[in-house]
Each structure stands twice: as C-alpha cells, then as structure tokens.
Amino acid sequence: MNRDWAGHRVGDDFIVLGNYLTGAHLLDAMEKAFTADPTEDLEERLMQTVEAGRDAGGQHGGQQSAALLVVDDRPFAYVDLRVDVHAEPIAELRRVFDAYRPAIPYYNLRQVDARVPPLPDWLRDRGR
Question: CA angle, 83 as apex, 80 and 86 as ends, to 5°?
Fold first, then answer.
C-alpha cells in the first residue's frame, strides 16, 4: 500500500519515482539533479539524485536504508553498494561510494581477470 504521496516522472533516458514521499516536489529535485550534468558518470549522477530526494524532504519518517546499483552488459553489477539500518543511510552511502569510486574499474577488471594485483598495488600503480 502506498501512503502519502507516490508518483513517477519519465524523461529522456531516465525515470524518477517513489512512494511514501513528502510530495511531488521530490521528483522535481531528483530530475534536476540527474539531468544537471549529463557528462558526469552515471553512478555519480544517481548518487546526486538520491541525495537531492533526501534534501527535498525524502520520505515521511526519514530513511533507514539506501542503495546504489548500476548494471551494464556484463553478467555482474558495475556498482552494487547498500547501507541498511543506519541513522543517516544516504550520507553513509555517499561516504562508502566516495571510498569505493576510485576502485570501480579495479573491481570490474578483477571479475574477469584474476591476474589483477591486489587493490592497494593496483591503486598505487595508478598514483592513488
């Protein structure tokens, strides 16, 4: 059962949606965030969209979980992060995402090539 406000908006190459929200203005904020910089990586645009929804009022009663899932044509997720049962799950997801972001190429390469060195070595070789 949907409570309070629920809805969606369909744009070119995206959909924003939600239920149990504080109002339609959340979709406006989310759409604006997602479309602000189409040259930005998809995972960053999605993270900004989730943050914009939270900042615009989120859902009644607050949030306790947040997730970021990006898939492409591979048989595994490009990015798959989740925070559950947290007082500030979107802020925690941002913290985890920012730590994980430099390693996204590593983890995707590691899925298909076991010869890839351990993460610290891989990052060091790239000046990080």
Answer: 175
User: In which region does residue 61 sit, left (phi positive, over 0), alpha (psi from -120 to 50) or beta (all else)?
Assistant: left
Cα–Cα dist 51/41, whole Å: 16
SS (H, E, C) 10-75: EECCEEEEEEEECCCHHHHHHHHHHHCCCCCCHHHHHHHHHHHHHHCCCECCCCCCEEEEECCCCC
Q: What residues contact 91, with CB distance under 8 A and at least 6 apart? A: none
* Under 8 Å between Cβ of 18 and 26: yes
Sequence ranges of the domains in the chain: 1-62, 63-128
Three-class DSSP category at 103: helix
Is the separation of the CB atoms in 43 and 97 below 8 Å?
yes
Instruction: Give the model confidence (pLDDT) of 54-104 as tens digits.
Output: 999 988 888 899 999 999 999 999 999 999 999 999 999 999 999 999 999
